[in-house]
C-alpha cells in the first residue's frame, strides 16, 4: 500500500530541496544567490525583492547561499572546465532569453499564446481569468483538462519518488512518506525543460512544433542574443535550438527574485519583523491544529530544521476526493477519469492501482492570488475550498451528486481506488459529526492564507 504511511510533524516542516533539481536550474539559483539576489534588476518582481526590507533576506539567503554555493561549485566543475565567471554569464544569458521567450506568443501554433497567457506574473504565474481550465490550440478553441498551477516555489519540488524519505521526518529517515515530488499535478516530469516541452507541443495548449519554435526564435528580436548564448550556427540544428529554448525557459523559472522571493507577510512574521492580526493568528492555529484542518501536515507551515523557510507543501501525491467537474469537456464522456498519477496524462504508472486518484499537494504560497482551485478547477473561491475540507465527510450531499436520495460520494474516483483516499484529519469525520470548522473559523483560516502573498510591505504609518 503506497498511501502515505506517516504524516509529517507540523512542528518540523520539510527543508527546501533545490539540490535535487537539474543542473542549469541549480546553476542559476546558485549563482543568483551568490550574487546577493540582485541578478535580475529588470525582472517583473524585482521591486518586491528590492523592497523586501521587512523579510529576513539575510537569514534566507545565508542558509540558501551556503547550500547553493556547493551546487554552483559542482555545476561549474561539471560544465567542461568553464570558469565560474563563464558559468555565471551563461546563466544570466539564459535567464534573460528564457524570460523573453516566456512572454513570446510567436512560439505558439496560433501565434497568440505564450506561457504568460496562462501563467501571468501578477497572479503568481496563474491565469488572470477564472475559467476552470484554459482554452488553447492552433485555433484557440480547445479546452484543457486541468487548472493552471502557480510557477512560484517550484525550485523546492524534489524529483518524483515512489517512496520518499525525508531527514526532517521527526528525525527518522526510515519513514516512508509515500509518493512525492515531480512537476505538474501528477509529478510526471522532473525537470523544467521537460515540462516546458509539454505546453509547447500540446494540441490544446501552445500547439507548436520544434520547427515552428526554431523559426520563431530565428525571427525574434532576441535572435542575436540567442546566437551569442548558444553559438553562431545554433539555428542550423532544429533539435539543438529547441533544447536550448527549453533549457532557457527552465533557467528563467529558477530566478530567485521572481519565483521564490520569500517576501510574504508570513515570512516577515517568521523573521520577527511583522505581527499577524488576531484573525490571522487564529487562522494559523486552526491551520496547524491536528484535530481540526490539520492543513500543515501536508501544507508545511514551519521552518525546516535547517532553518529553510516553509514551502506550504510537502509535495506528497495525495487523493483528497475532489468532486468531478462536470463542466470539463473531457468529463462529458462518463467513462473518462483523470486519475492523476496513474493516468491518462501520466503513462509510466498506469498499471499501478495504488497511484490512482493521487495529485501533488500544491504550495499555498500566493494562494489568495489564484482564481481557480484543485486539479480540475472545480472551485473558484477559498471559501468553497474551505467548505470542502470542513464538510466533505459530515455533509457530503453539499459536494457530490445525490441520486435517488443517495449521495454519490467521490464521484470522480472509481470505487476500486477508494482505498487510496487519505483518511487523516480533516478526512476522518463521518456524517452527523460536527464540521471541522465553523463559518467564523473558515474566515480566520482565509485571513491567514492571505499572509502568504509575496510582495508584502510594512504599512507606511
Ligand atoms: C494553455 C495554458 C498553458 C500554457 C500556454 C502554458 N501552461 Fe504551464 N501549465 C498549464 C497547466 C494546465 C498545467 C498543469 C498540467 C498538468 O498537471 O498536467 C501547467 C503546468 C506547468 C508547470 C508545472 C507546475 C507544477 O506545479 O509542477 C510548469 C513549470 C509550467 N506549466 C510552465 C510553463 C511554460 C514554461 C510554458 C510555456 C512554454 C507554459 N507552462 C505554458 C497551463 C499552461
Ligand atoms: C492529506 C494532505 C492534505 C491536507 C491535510 C490538506 N491538503 Fe490542501 N491539498 C492537498 C492536495 C493533494 C491538494 C490538491 C488536490 C487536487 O487538486 O486533487 C490540495 C489542494 C489545496 C488547495 C487548492 C490549491 C490550488 O492551487 O488549487 C487549497 C487552497 C488547500 N489545499 C488548502 C488546504 C487547507 C486550508 C487545509 C486544511 C483545512 C488543507 N489544504 C489540508 C493536500 C492536503
Please characterize this protein's 3D structure:
- The protein has helices spanning 23-34, 46-50, 57-78, 84-102, 115-118, 192-201, 210-218, 223-230, 238-252, 256-259, 265-270, 278-288, 382-391, 439-449, and strands at 135-136, 142-143, 317-318, 359-360, 402-403, 406-407.
- It has 461 residues and is an all-alpha fold.
- The protein folds into 2 domains: 18-257, Cytochrome c-like domain (Cytochrome Bc1 Complex, Chain D, domain 2), CATH 1.10.760; 265-452, Cytochrome Bc1 Complex, Chain D, domain 2 (Orthogonal Bundle), CATH 1.10.760.10.
- Strands 1-2 form a two-stranded antiparallel sheet.
- A hairpin with a 5-residue loop joins β1 (135-136) and β2.
- α4 packs across α9.
- The longest helix is centred in the first third of the chain and has 22 residues, at 57-78.
- The relative contact order is 0.16.
- The model is unreliable at 1-26 and 28-78 (pLDDT under 50).
- The structure holds heme C (2 copies).
- Residues 293-295, 297-299, 318, 320, 322, 359, 361-362, 364, 367, 370, 373-375, 382, 385, 389, 422, 424, 426, 445 line the site of one heme C.
- One heme C is lined by residues 293-295, 297-299, 318, 320, 322, 359, 361-362, 364, 367, 370, 373-375, 382, 385, 389, 422, 424, 426, 445.
Amino acid at each position: 500500500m503506497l498511501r502515505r504511511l506517516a504524516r509529517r510533524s507540523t512542528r518540523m516542516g520539510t527543508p527546501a530541496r533545490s539540490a535535487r533539481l537539474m543542473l542549469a536550474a541549480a546553476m542559476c539559483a546558485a549563482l543568483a544567490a551568490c550574487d546577493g539576489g540582485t541578478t535580475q534588476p529588470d525582472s517583473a518582481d524585482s521591486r518586491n525583492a528590492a523592497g523586501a526590507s521587512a523579510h529576513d533576506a539575510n537569514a534566507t539567503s545565508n542558509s540558501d547561499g551556503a547550500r547553493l554555493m556547493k551546487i554552483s561549485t559542482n555545476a561549474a566543475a561539471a560544465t567542461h572546465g568553464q570558469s565560474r565567471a563563464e558559468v555565471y554569464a551563461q546563466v544570466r544569458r539564459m535567464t534573460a532569453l528564457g524570460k523573453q521567450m516566456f512572454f513570446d506568443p510567436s512560439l505558439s501554433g496560433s501565434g497568440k499564446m505564450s506561457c504568460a497567457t496562462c501563467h501571468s506574473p501578477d497572479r503568481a504565474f496563474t491565469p488572470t481569468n477564472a475559467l476552470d481550465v484554459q482554452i488553447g490550440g492552433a485555433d484557440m478553441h480547445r479546452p484543457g483538462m486541468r487548472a493552471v498551477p502557480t510557477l512560484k516555489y517550484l525550485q523546492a519540488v524534489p524529483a518524483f519518488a515512489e517512496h520518499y524519505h525525508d531527514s526532517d521526518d521527526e528525525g527518522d529517515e526510515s519513514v516512508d512518506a509515500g509518493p512525492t515530488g515531480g512537476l505538474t499535478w501528477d509529478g510526471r516530469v522532473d525537470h523544467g525543460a521537460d515540462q516546458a516541452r509539454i505546453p509547447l507541443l500540446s494540441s490544446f495548449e501552445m500547439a507548436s512544433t520544434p520547427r515552428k519554435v526554431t523559426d520563431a526564435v530565428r525571427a525574434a528580436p532576441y535572435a542575436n542574443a540567442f546566437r551569442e548564448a548558444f553559438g553562431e550556427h545554433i539555428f542550423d540544428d532544429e533539435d539543438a535550438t529547441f533544447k536550448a529554448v527549453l533549457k532557457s525557459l527552465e533557467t528563467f523559472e529558477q530566478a530567485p527574485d521572481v519565483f521564490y522571493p520569500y517576501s510574504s507577510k508570513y515570512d516577515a512574521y517568521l523573521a520577527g519583523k511583522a505581527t499577524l492580526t488576531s484573525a490571522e493568528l487564529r487562522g494559523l492555529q486552526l491551520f496547524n491544529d491536528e484535530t481540526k484542518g490539520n492543513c500543515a501536515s501536508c501544507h508545511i507551515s514551519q521552518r525546516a530544521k535547517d532553518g529553510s523557510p516553509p514551502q506550504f507543501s510537502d509535495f506528497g501525491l495525495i487523493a483528497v476526493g475532489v468532486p468531478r467537474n462536470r463542466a470539463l469537456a473531457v468529463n462529458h464522456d462518463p467513462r473518462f477519469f483523470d486519475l492523476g498519477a496513474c493516468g491518462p496524462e501520466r503513462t509510466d504508472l498506469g498499471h499501478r492501482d495504488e497511484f490512482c486518484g493521487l495529485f501533488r499537494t500544491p504550495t499555498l504560497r500566493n494562494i489568495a492570488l489564484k482564481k481557480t482551485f484543485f486539479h480540475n478547477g472545480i472551485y473558484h473561491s477559498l471559501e468553497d475550498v474551505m467548505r470542502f475540507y470542513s464538510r466533505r465527510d459530515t455533509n457530503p450531499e453539499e459536494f457530490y451528486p445525490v441520486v435517488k436520495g443517495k449521495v454519490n460520494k467521490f464521484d470522480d474516483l472509481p470505487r476500486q481506488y477508494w482505498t487510496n483516499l487519505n483518511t487523516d484529519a480533516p478526512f476522518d469525520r463521518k456524517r452527523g459529526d460536527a464540521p471541522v470548522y465553523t463559518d467564523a473559523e473558515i474566515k480566520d483560516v482565509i485571513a491567514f492564507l492571505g499572509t502568504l502573498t509575496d510582495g508584502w510591505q510594512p504599512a507606511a504609518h
